[in-house]
Amino acid sequence: MRTITYHEPRSVDEACQLLAELGSEARVIAGGQSLMVLLKQRIVDPGHLIDIKRVAELDHVRFDGGAAHIGALTTHRAIETGQPIRGKLPMLSEAVAKLGSVQIRNWGTVGGNLAHADPAGDLAPILIALGASVKVVSARGTRSLPLESFFQDFYETALGPDELLAEVEVPEPAEDVRACYVKESIRLGDMAIVGVGAALAIDENSGRCTNIRIIVGAVDRTPVRASRIEEALRGALPEKKALRDICQDGVADYHPLPDIHFSSDYKRTLMAVLIRNVLEKLIYGAN
Ligand SMILES: Cc1cc2nc3c(=O)[nH]c(=O)nc-3n(C[C@H](O)[C@H](O)[C@H](O)COP(=O)(O)OP(=O)(O)OC[C@H]3O[C@@H](n4cnc5c(N)ncnc54)[C@H](O)[C@@H]3O)c2cc1C
């Protein structure tokens, strides 16, 4: 039988101190929804668990300096239902409502979801599309990095063994920005077969697309950008019927990783369809 020593810090400093002392011997636990599965299957086997659920400093949503600051312990449900996020970042609330079930959203945390780095996670595509960055803390100090460079491989992030994900910072979108997330899953609330988050602005004089970002989850080891489609639409005034070709051509170079249910070809086709759906919704307001 193995023994795991359980720690329950009450502050970020205390949690960082424990991480500095224990390093890769320890795992942080937040909601435990993903970590417990890994522990049961012995995919991870830490000697120490650092339970951060009682670190109140990590449970906050603040708006200042033109951005939302979302503490790592904020639950999915708080983002889905809480003001002022619903008012200022409605696209984020709507995206989170597609994650799991109410029970899962009541307990799972933003920090846990991102640090777990499941390529099919629902938060990364919409947050990257919105230009989010993450604040990471340790006993050595604090650093920020774009969320886009946080994901490094399957279930791997840029977090060092002594680091804690403390906060997600999401810039408040300008008034002309439109963004949304769509996913396709086998059953409502399942992980995505493919998920697409996108944001763009439409120039009010010319009607052209600017600042376009399209992020696709569940097709590769980390979320990927649909760069060719972004390029085709940047500064363009796309006609609705041209979008189908732009999306089909734009995914031709991708070879999505197949899974036990779906082939790579199926996922590539789904990628094109979902990206087109998102773009039609954002550009023309279609459902
Ligand atoms: C039945 C079920 C259905 C689900 N459906 C979906 C879905 O449809 N879409 C989706 O995106 N997700 C889904 N999830 C995942 C879930 O929503 C949580 O987001 C996810 O499990 C992680 O959150 P957590 O707080 O439970 O993290 P934990 O399980 O506690 O931790 C996950 C990982 O992150 C690390 N970690 C946690 N917090 C931090 C931190 N602050 N700093 C550094 N490392 C940290 C842990 O060490 C661990 O490696 C589902 C989960 C379940 C159980």
Walk me through what this model shows.
This protein is α+β, with helices and mostly antiparallel strands and 287 residues long. It has three domains: 47 residues, Uridine Diphospho-n-acetylenolpyruvylglucosamine Reductase, domain 2 (2-Layer Sandwich); 116 residues, Uridine Diphospho-n-acetylenolpyruvylglucosamine Reductase, domain 3; 108 residues, CO dehydrogenase flavoprotein, C-terminal domain (Enolase-like, domain 1, 2-Layer Sandwich), CATH 3.30.390. It has eleven helices and 14 strands. Strands 4-5-10-6-7 form a five-stranded antiparallel beta sheet. Strands 11-12-13-14 form a four-stranded antiparallel beta sheet, sandwiched between helices. Strand 13 and strand 14 form a beta hairpin. Helix 9 packs antiparallel against helix 10 and helix 10 packs antiparallel against helix 11. The longest helix has 21 residues. It starts with a strand and ends with a helix. The relative contact order is 0.11. The model has no long low-confidence stretch (mean pLDDT 95).
